[in-house]
Amino acid sequence: ATNVLLVAAAQQTLGMGKRKSHPRAICFHLAGEVLAVAWGLKPAVLYDCNSAGVLELQNYLGQLQGLGFLALGLHILEIGENSLIVNLKHVCEHLEQVLLGTIAVVDISSKHPHPSVCSLDRLQDLKALVTELIMHLHGLQRDLSVGVSHSRLHSTDWNLCTLFGILLGYPVSYTFHMNQGNDNCLALIPLRVFTARISSLLCQHQILLPLVSIRLVPKPYSKCLGEGSQNPI
């Protein structure tokens, strides 16, 4: 059965012994994430289930390909100590759309009294980074006959919060000035979480494909903040 195959693929390749194997729910969730990427529903997924490395992820994706769930074209992109599974074709198309200004970037730097939407043209460092990513990923599309390819990028000066928001396909990405630490102007403001999902009937087994989950300032708070309030609510 499909559910047995998906669970076994994750537990055999990503587990670290029987006691530490992934629970069934995590296996299904991971399969849904990977399928969403493979089918072009989202550009990438960040693997954060455990400390499995590139080799383990390649073995996992290779098993899914061998079982007929995935086509060629998936790639493991290492950025710092993080591993993202991307669909090379779709992630390049997505990043090219980002350069055209299709997503909102919200500056939440602590120096601001409230969050503010800004265009990518005002964030030249981020725009240059997205351009660099496109060039890197385009070069990897020349040979998609390789099972699951892999590449690594160094991220010494990158704002990974913003970068991952863009790579994962969030319609809104937060950014902030790195030289101001981790503080931001959203402190103590409750955020509302919006999640989009679709379900797929795969071989008579329903799998939830999580598309995106983002946290936004609720309307009453955003209205107050827009009027210049500097006090946490």
Tell me about this structure.
This protein has seven helices and nine strands. With 233 residues, the protein is α/β, with parallel strands linked by helices. It has one domain (2-226). The N and C termini lie far apart (51 Å). The model is unreliable at 220-233 (pLDDT under 50). Pfam families: DUF4504. InterPro entries: DUF4504 (IPR027850). Belongs to the UPF0739 family.
What characteristics describe this protein?
four-stranded mixed sheet, 233 residues, DUF4504, disordered C terminus, globular, 37% helix, alpha/beta
Quick overview of this protein structure:
Belongs to the UPF0739 family. With 233 residues, the chain is α/β, with parallel strands linked by helices.
Query: How would you characterize the largest beta sheet?
Result: 4 strands, mixed
**Spatial order of the strands forming the largest sheet:** 1-3-2-6
Mean pLDDT reading:
80
Q: Secondary-structure element sequence?
A: HHEHEEHEEHEHEEEH
Number of helices: 7
Structural topology:
Elements: H1 2-14, H2 24-38, E1 44-47, H3 54-66, E2 74-79, E3 82-87, H4 88-99, E4 104-107, E5 116-118, H5 124-140, E6 149-153, H6 160-167, E7 172-175, E8 192-202, E9 205-216, H7 219-226
Parallel strand pairs: 2-6, 4-7
Antiparallel strand pairs: 1-3, 2-3, 4-5, 8-9
Helix pairs in contact: 1-2, 1-3, 4-5
